[in-house]
Design a protein that fits this description.
single chain; about 140 residues; mainly alpha; Four Helix Bundle (Hemerythrin (Met), subunit A); about 0% strand
């Protein structure tokens, strides 16, 4: 399933996480638009920097949240963040080397990483939290 933009089905039910996910989708949409316009609109390198900052803030928020709730698969989830950071760095490097390569990289990122991050990784800890809450009721 390709992800083309934010959709309510990606909601985790955790307000701060959902708001950050929406912000990430919006940043990707701006980035895709800037790439398609070939530099006629927003500055792509600036948008890449913005994207890196908001995803870093998201990772920090998510990791603090998972630590707070003693998520048993925290290390695996945090490793995904490490891999994503490396991918973001490659995206920026690739853009600086070959500005035409970015479109393919963004599409790959959206379809693979973001789908996995939200639909598999994040929903997994949401299920853990829901089960934990049900056991406490």
């Amino acid at each position: 399933m390709a992800i083309s933009g934010w959709h309510p089905r990606y909601r985790t039910g955790i307000e701060s996480i959902d708001a950050q996910h929406e912000e990430i989708f919006l940043a990707l949409a701006r980035l895709k638009s800037a790439v398609r316009m070939g530099g006629e609109g927003e500055d792509v390198d600036e948008l890449l920097g913005y994207f890196a900052r908001i995803t870093e803030r998201h990772f920090e928020t998510e990791e603090a949240f998972l630590r707070l709730h003693n998520y048993p698969e925290f290390e695996a989830h945090a490793k995904e963040h490490v891999a994503a950071r490396a991918n973001f760095a490659k995206i920026r490097e690739r853009y600086r080397d070959d500005r035409n390569a970015l479109v393919e990289t963004i599409v790959t990122f959206v379809n693979d990483w973001l789908k996995h991050h939200i639909c598999e990784g994040d929903f997994k800890y949401v299920q853990f939290l829901q089960a934990r809450q049900e056991n406490h009721n």
